[in-house]
Amino acid sequence: MITSLRGGITVQSKNENQTAPASGIRHPESGIQAPASRNYLFDKPRNVKILLGCFYVSLLVLLIVELFVHKHPHFAWEEWPEFYAVYGFVACVVLVVAAKYILRPLVKRREDYYD
Question: Could you tell me the end-to-end alpha-carbon distance of the chain, in angstroms, rounded to an integer?
């Protein structure tokens, strides 16, 4: 007998009284359980805190290293400390604001547009 479980999993069983694992979703007709969902790396808050800590430490190291690296500037403002970090942040904010208030009204459609 072939039984289709949720999520497209197909199980072939010869014996109706087949035992299933202790975890997962039990199919109502056959009684066979699907495997439980996996735990991924960022499901645990501790792992997210570790990743953010690494990110902030690397950011701090790069900001400190930039103070000691000669950049060969073409313009006077490129000599300012942390110019490229500030420039990148401001450019990102400008792109988000432009997308929200200028581009969104251009492409937005009424809720019943496709009806």
Answer: 43
Name the β-bridge partners of 2.
12
Scanning 1-115, the segments in alpha helix (DSSP H) are 45-66, 83-98, 104-107
* Residues 27-50 pLDDT 10s: 677 767 666 678 888 899 999 999
- b/e 3-38 (16+ beta carbons within 10 angstroms → b): eebeeeeebeeeeeeeebeeeeeebeebebbbeeee
Its domain, for residue 18, covers 1-37
**Cα distance between residue 73 and residue 57, in whole Å:** 27
Same domain, 75 and 104: yes
Quote the pTM value: 0.51
Same-domain status, 45 and 14: no
The angle subtended at Cα 29 by Cα 24 and Cα 30, nearest 5°, is: 65
